[in-house]
Amino acid sequence: MFPAETQPVPVRLGAENDFRAVRQFLRDADYTAELLCRSLGEDTLPACMTASAVRRRADPFLVRLLFCGNFVERSELERHIPPDVAAAFQALGLLASEDERSCCPAMLYPAGSLFLASDRIVDPLGNAAEVGREFVYPGITENSTTYVGMLPRTPCEALLDLGTGSGVAALLLAAEARQVWATDLSGRCVAFAEFNRRLNGVANVTVLKSDGFHQLAGMTFDRIVSHPPYDPLERSFAYCDGGEGGELITQRIIRDLPAHLRPGGRFYCLTMCADRHGEPAEARIRGWLGVSEREFDVALVARSVGSPAEFAAVRMLKSRGDTRLIDQAVDRMEALGIEQLVYTSLAIQRHGGARPPVTVRRRIGPSFGAAELDWLLDWEAAAPAFDPMRARLAVSEAAELRIVYRVEDERLAMARCDFRCSQPFSGELSGPPWLAALVSRCGRPAHGADIYEFLHETAGVSRDRFDAAVRQLI
Question: What is the pTM of this model?
Answer without folding.
Answer: 0.91
